[in-house]
Design a protein that fits this description.
This protein has helices at 42-59, 80-96, 147-155, 161-171, 176-184, 197-209, 226-231, 237-246, 258-265, 282-293; strands at residues 7-9, 18-21, 27-35, 63-73, 101-108, 113-122, 138-141, 189-192, 211-215, 250-252, 273-277, 298-305, 311-313. It is α+β, with helices and mostly antiparallel strands. The strands form two sheets. It has a seven-stranded mixed β-sheet, with helices on both faces. A six-stranded mixed β-sheet has the order 1-2-3-6-4-5, with helices on one face. It is globular, with a radius of gyration of 19 Å. It binds cobalt (II) ion (2 copies).
């Protein structure tokens, strides 16, 4: 039987997954996520959804063990093959992550939806929360931003194939390596950057850790084409909502344009990890991430003692 005191990370915090201590002292880590298609190709949609679901486990420094599919599908309107392709994408990503998908549940639904419940485990000493960052830590982002902006452009058929492919490659890259490297480089805190965007998730980390962050726009990595799309007014409503929500906690220097604020707040799907680790470990971590994922990780700023803002963006 699980008692309240065995809930290590529960619903009252803002962490990425639930963490419960089992009788033998081991921690079980569990998360669920699903969404509607954001790309046209069902196989790639399945890969992205699975990568995204696994990400919350990786963000906590945990090791995924198995997954369960969650499926909504318009059985009468769309060919069965579309569903098989979505599931094949999810299954291939699960394989890459080294886990089986052992079951799931599907319903007839107007719009396709797919995602997974992922169960993982971690030793208590290796659990990484978003509330345990240290003053002076370097802040590292392990994937470029802009998948929300590019997905909006895809829906309106407004973007070149090469830009779409780059965004898809980014979304289907597992956060497995950046996660395991966190242990080696003494990461103090982490979260993954998803729906609330970089600014939203960084705000959560600062608030939970009782610190402030100073970040530089010029150091934030973006996917190709993002600047151009935003300058044409192409971005998701969710990114604007993110910005409206976090703005009161942010001190923007007047060199930061409105377009740049939207870019930094862009709602991500299957984004990278945002990791707080000692400044003298930053270069090694960044180099190793690139070697193992092929994606550019970058230091975007540092954590400071708590100020009258949570984030200073210059
Ligand atoms: Co998360
Ligand atoms: Co999540």
């Amino acid at each position: 039987m699980t008692h309240q005191e065995d809930v290590v990370v529960g619903i009252d915090g803002s962490d990425d997954a639930a963490v419960v201590r089992l009788n033998d002292g081991k921690l079980i880590v569990q998360t669920v996520d699903f969404f509607t298609p954001i790309v046209d190709d069902p196989y790639q949609f399945g890969q992205i959804a699975a990568t995204n679901s696994l990400s919350d486990i990786y963000a906590m420094g945990a090791i995924p063990r198995f997954g369960l599919n969650i499926v909504g599908f318009p059985i009468k309107e769309l060919p069965k093959e579309v569903l098989s392709e979505i599931l094949r994408g999810g299954s291939d990503k699960a394989k890459e992550a080294g886990i089986p998908i052992v079951g799931g549940h599907s319903i007839d639904d107007k719009e396709p939806k797919y995602g997974l419940v992922i169960t993982g485990e971690v030793e208590e000493s290796k659990l990484i929360k978003n509330s345990t960052a240290h003053e002076g830590d370097a802040l590292i982002l392990t994937k470029p931003l802009g998948t929300g902006i590019i997905s909006t452009a895809i829906k309106r058929s407004l973007v070149a194939k090469s830009i779409i492919n780059q965004s898809i490659d980014c979304m289907k890259t597992l956060n497995a390596h950046p996660s395991t490297l966190m242990i080696e480089y003494n990461a103090h805190a982490a979260t993954d950057v998803t729906g609330f965007g970089l600014l939203g998730h960084l705000y959560e980390m600062c608030k939970a850790s009782n610190l402030s962050a100073k970040i530089q726009f010029k150091d934030i990595p973006f996917l190709d084409g993002v600047r151009n799309l935003v300058s044409k007014g192409i971005y998701p409503k969710g990114s604007k909502r993110n910005l409206d929500y976090v703005s009161e906690f942010i001190s923007f220097s007047n060199t930061v344009s409105d377009d740049q604020k939207i870019m930094a707040a862009d709602a991500q799907t299957s984004g990278g990890l945002l990791v707080a680790l000692p400044q003298n470990k930053a270069d090694g971590y960044i180099k190793n991430c690139f070697e193992l994922t092929g994606l550019i990780a970058k230091q975007i700023g540092t954590l400071t003692s708590k100020s009258d803002y949570f984030i200073k963006l210059k």
